[in-house]
Amino acid sequence: MILLPDSHAMAAAVQALQQGQLLGLPTETVYGLAADAENGAAVARIYERKGRPSDHPLIVHVPDVAAAQHFAADIPPFALALMQAFWPGPLTLILPRRPGAAESAAAGQATIGLRSPSHPVARQLMLAALQAEPPVRGIAAPSANRFGRVSPTSAAHVAAEFGDDLLVLDGGDCEVGIESTIVDCSRGRPVILRPGHIAAAAIAQACGLPVDVHGATGPGEHALIDDAEDDTPRAPGTLTAHYAPNAKVRLMDAASLQAGLDVLGAQARHIAVYSRTPMKSASRELVLRRMPAQPEQVAHELFRLLREFDGLGVRLIWIEELPAGSAWDGVRDRLNRAAASA
Ligand code: TXA
Ligand code: MG
């Protein structure tokens, strides 16, 4: 059931959290499948509903730094600097977990992923939940998609994933469109586990430390999760073949893409093309979408487009390779993962 976030819906949402029920929650990045982070049974419901292996930790959403301190202990100064710079916003920090806090949301890890989202509906809900009796201090929320599928960027996407019995607060289309940047702050220096809207350079500048980039993948590369000498928890966002639409995704340079279309000629069917360079085709059935010039614009529409292509019954998605440069890291990472499942 999709509800506009009026006062009744917000009260129902707080009550749902208090009662250990799940909720579709808008954030500025993607929609989350939310529950009280300190209610083990509710957290178990998230794993079950998503079909997510229970050893993959969830991000806990908090209204502010004070609430973060409830879940994390010994927060290093550089992590506090990142909170100051980017919260509320699309940045998740992996921090040492306060012993006993949100055990099941953290999947038993010694660390916890915390984020303070900026979406007004998410903020309003977190604040109301914190003030409720009994209070809900943190909201565990993975992306509201079934495990391994494309993250939802609208309320309708969430309803399409989980059906009509889930309460979904409608916060409109997500502005950022790809999941938050994840920075591991538990190793004495910032390490990016998942690239996103907030780029490595901005993180380095805000905390005055060099930043390692660990999560980004190239086609066929394996992410941190497969790094045997690393004790990082299994992380679905870092599985290579995550973000998979039904269609097969291929990344090509503009010339190869055009050559492929030329070979198929009028026979090109069930194919979608997403390119910056204008393409020509003799087929009337080709689904052609022009890629915007800025990485933020591509991030904003990417997951919606992948769903749209699936809805059109497309079997192949041909995407023009992205420009070089770290500003494209977040989008490049999602595209490489989508292509890796092909
Ligand atoms: O933008 C986002 O981050 C969205 C919205 C809803 O906030 N959430 C999201 O959650 O993308 P999810 O569960 O789909 O991805 C969270 C990622 C996973 O790869 C998870 O393993 C990793 O964060 N993660 C969570 N806690 C962690 C921890 N303690 N250590 C390492 N990775 C962690
Ligand atoms: Mg996810």
UniProtKB/TrEMBL annotation:
L-threonine binds at T29, H61, R115, A141, S180. SUPFAM superfamilies: YrdC/RibB. GO terms for molecular function: ATP binding; double-stranded RNA binding; L-threonylcarbamoyladenylate synthase; tRNA binding. One of its GO terms (biological process) is tRNA processing. Keywords: ATP-binding, Cytoplasm, Nucleotide-binding, Nucleotidyltransferase, Transferase, tRNA processing. It comes from the Bacteria. ATP binds at R52, T111, S143, S151, R194, Y243. Residues 7-198 form the YrdC-like domain. Its EC number is 2.7.7.87. PROSITE patterns: YRDC. Pfam families: Sua5_C, Sua5_yciO_yrdC. It is found in: Cytoplasm. GO terms for cellular component: cytoplasm. It catalyses: L-threonine + hydrogencarbonate + ATP = L-threonylcarbamoyladenylate + diphosphate + H2O. PANTHER family: SUA5, THREONYLCARBAMOYL-AMP SYNTHASE. Belongs to the SUA5 family. Required for the formation of a threonylcarbamoyl group on adenosine at position 37 (t(6)A37) in tRNAs that read codons beginning with adenine. This is Threonylcarbamoyl-AMP synthase. The lineage of its organism: Bacteria, Pseudomonadati, Pseudomonadota, Betaproteobacteria, Burkholderiales.
